[in-house]
Amino acid sequence: MTAIPTTxxxxxxxxxxxxxxxxxxxxxxxxxxxxxxxxxxxxxxDDASTDRTAEIVAEYAARDARIRLIxxxxxxxxxxxxxxxxxxxxxxxxxxxxxxxxxxxxxxEVSLAKAEAEQADLVQFGIEIVMPNGTxxxxxxxxxxxxxxxxxxxxVANLFPVGTPAAGQLWxxxxxxxxxRAVYEQLPSDARLYRANDLPIAFLAAVTARRYxxxxxxxxxxxxxxxxxxxxxxxxxxxxxxxxxxxxxxxxTEAVHEAAYRHSNPQFLLDAYASARTSIVxxxxxxxxxxxxxxxxxxxxxxxxxxxxxxxxxxxxARCHPPALVQLAEDSNPVKLxxxxxxxxxxxxxxxxxxxxxxxxxxxxxxFAAAGLRVTIAVRQPGSDKTAVPExxxxxxxxxxxxxxxxxYWAEICTREKVDVIIxxxxxxxxxxxAYVLMANAxxxxxxxxxxxxxGRPTYDLNDMHGHLKRxxxxxxxxxxLSPLDVAFWKLRGIERTAYLxxxxxxxxxxxxxxAQQKQAPVGPIELVWVGRMxxxxxxVHALLxxxxxxxxxxxxxxxxxxxxxxxxxxxxxxxxxxxxxxxADRVEAIGPLHGEELLAALDQAHAFVGTSIIExxxxxxxxxxxxxxxxxxxxxxxxxxxxxxxxxxSVPQGDASALALSIQRVMGDPEHYKxxxxxxxxxxxxxxxxxxxxxxxxxxSGDLPAEYSPLPTLDAAAQLLDLTxxxxxxxxxIRRKLDKAQQELELTAPKVKSARKSARKKELxxxxxx
Length: 771
Description:
The structure is a single chain. This protein has 771 residues and is of the alpha/beta class. It is 46% helix and 15% strand. It contains 30 helices and 22 strands. The strands form three sheets. Strands 1, 2, 3, 4, 5, 6, 7, 8 and 9 form a nine-stranded mixed sheet that branches. The protein has a seven-stranded parallel sheet with strand order 12-11-10-13-14-15-16, with helices on both faces. The longest helix is centred in the last third of the chain and has 33 residues, at 735-767. The model has no long low-confidence stretch (mean pLDDT 91).
């Protein structure tokens, strides 16, 4: 075949660094040679390949003189390969092409035209990501150009914004060749960088460039997973290889500091550099943590920790690789309780509202403050009632920014308030709490996780929280549950640092203790009350209609008031509509939420409290009702500590509305039995109030909690947990099948709906008269 002669002075140089790319280099070169702009040169720098890569390139060079092959005598890294190509380039502009990717046929022509028209030092263009299955990943959408043009210092500010993961792939740009030479001249000529060696060049180029322009056309085709970047870690050498990415970025430190002297805002440039470096650390962590071997994971964490410190490692993981936070939590050595005196306590929850967990947090704040401790409350979602914060208690909202920014603020709060211990009340209801625990551990602050529901809740919810909690609970200094059975569950799951303590009484109970008397059996209509969130999933508020139906069948004269705020899955209006349909509107009514004196008045007007929940941790409303002398009739929840020693409660099997109604009828018809239940209810409330919460909580945060609060699991406890687990699973038997069927039907109907919409749109356009 006749060789194609060298063209005139090239306008664009394509630099192709290669190493053992024999399977893909042919397609890469074909895409370069097929450019619509003929005045190009292709410089392939072979980094001492051990396969046929160089031979294949030589064959192409023999056929097309626009290709030049430079062979490095030894493997010197892609950093050096690109350097050789840049300094050998004859064209004023330069594109990069990896040996396993491809250029669009018009890449050189279109990007050059933009550079010349805008006098740009670098031109960014769109890219196409080809996944192994042939699809484009979500990264493709995130990687397209975001700015039409930038000038001067705005270039680095926008291409490498502070606080976001840095993206510095060189093949996303057309560069002015002299710009790249100026960048490389600032760096050691003998540097060998084997990981992330393009990001430092891209960063310095953005610092040095005067004009930037972009075009949306996708001119580069990147094949995800063809290289070896995603390989699993199998040795310490693999870890060190991925860790070398940090060295790659550190090589530009001096150059960045030099540039900062000339920058109008030196601190901003240094912050941008630090932010990009954090991204590099995150990338290194993502690669180095790609192992199932706990020993190698520990080595990787130690390597990262040694380079950037504990705080830097957590920040980098939060920004660039959040899954690493779970790995770190699972393998962490939490700060132990009692290692330093406790003078300042931080309590954290989602929001401060009128809910049960909020009441626990507010009461704990009062207890700790009364004991002379400095108290801080920090919430991690918006929407709190700030007026509920006790006087003298510091309050913070950690609700803005990315996770790493929130963690920085978390660290600032802990430092500012001199926090000695944290009690986290979100651990059972979120999947990011462990990040805050890790940051606190990095600062030497232990965290106690307070679990507000029975351990079987994730099983009942049919979610994956059990696996997540087993892994992340290891980062906690202590797990606190509300019952001995919960302790058995978590210890059987391998979480040894587990104990139980009661929730403190609510502010309502504390402020009105000792003001209720034993109640007398009703004469005339029976007034029943239900208090809680209008939630069907766990509170089973709709079950009250079944109980009411049974009471009516038994010819009981009653009224039932349902008190509580609406929820997503159930509302007062929906309840009342169902009551009307069932012919119970004259007997049953949901009246919305009540608070303070209004709630007390409603409790005092009632003769009994009805509970229909299927799962709870420590229902405060139950104790509030008993504190007013109300007997309680409820579906059984045998793990509840209060129920086990509470003779003011009548429990029946879950879901047995007939048994619940019959119990109410029998007790209300027996004045002496009723009076005994009322007296026992008051006695239970008294015991709750007399418990020395201050002493127990002080022992907890100091690491001195008596062993009686952390019993060993027994065979009976294991059997009971097994029975409850099976009960919760059987409760939802068939739900997963129904969900899968619904999903299949949705997938089958979606294309038909889409096609019908398109047909309707075509008809609409066809019927629209032309202007």
